[in-house]
Amino acid sequence: MVGPTSAPEDVLRVEHIAKRFGPVTALKDVNLHLKKGEVLGLLGDNGAGKSTLIKILCGFQKPDSGQMFLRGEPFAPRSVDDARAAGIETVYQDLALIDELSVYHNLFLRKERVHRPVPLLSNRQMKREARAALDEIGINIPRIDVSVARLSGGQRQAIAVARTVNSDADIILLDEPLAAMGAKEGAQILDLVARLKAEGRVSIIMILHNYVHVFQACDRVSLIQDGAIALDKPTSETSVDELTEIVVNEYRRAREAAHAAPAPQPEQPGPA
């Protein structure tokens, strides 16, 4: 288990976070920190607690114990809107895009520009600002007036990320942004993350499964096992081999524990 570390440049830090759902322990003792302008890769097996941690960070769920700090101050978001107001935005696997709406309408979802005093949508202004926002972070969408249903998976993911950047968030949480994507689409998202990192505008936590993507995109990697952080290192100080060995050893211990458990005894027939 990796203990908490702190540095003046940390924008987000969690200490001893735990979360249970009935008899199931999702997080047991998580300590994690994120530096300003850093991209952190969050790894772990299915059910390790990665998504639960993201939901706690973005205010969707509350931890049972532990504490969080945002820019050095205690942080306990009461809701997703509360975390969003504090500068934390999340992009989930389902993206929360509305297929029937255009690119620019999705980019301004819940933050539409309207004419005053008559509350009519200012489509021209939203188109102009959407094009500027996409160009600024290098997203190539030829037409912003088409529905997002007509875009590729990589383009849709890029739109979802652009919406978070356009919201002035300075911490972005990406829940498996490369899931079910081909190599070309995945490369688009990795390029976008690289541009954001180079600009230093935001700090990013990415849930990933592919170790190669971790070393392509991330400054540091944290590995969750058994509800706690088992490894926390800069990517320059670890390797695919080390990560693989840790995971293989976990599987080996789990198999040995399963084989060592006593076999269930058959029920004895009761008296006739």
How would you describe this structure to a colleague?
The protein is α/β, with parallel strands linked by helices and 272 residues long. The chain has a domain at 10-94 and 169-259: Rossmann fold, CATH 3.40.50.300. Helix content is 34%, strand content 24%. The strands form two sheets. A six-stranded mixed beta sheet has the order 6-7-8-3-9-10, sandwiched between helices. A four-stranded antiparallel beta sheet has the order 2-1-4-5, covered by helices on one side. The mean pLDDT is 86.
TL;DR of this structure?
By secondary structure, the chain is of the alpha/beta class. The protein has helices spanning 50-57, 80-85, 103-107, 123-136, 153-166, 183-199, 211-217, 240-260, and strands at 10-21, 24-35, 39-44, 65-70, 73-74, 88-91, 171-175, 203-207, 220-225, 228-234. Helices cover 34% and strands 24% of the residues.
The CATH topology of the domain at 10-94 and 169-259 = Rossmann fold
Please give the alpha-carbon distance between the first and last residues: 54 Å
Q: State the strand order across the main sheet.
A: 6-7-8-3-9-10
Can you name the CATH architecture of the domain at 10-94 and 169-259? 3-Layer(aba) Sandwich
Share of helix, binned: 25-40%
- The secondary-structure element order is EEEHEEHEHHHEHEHEEH
Principal-axis shape equals globular
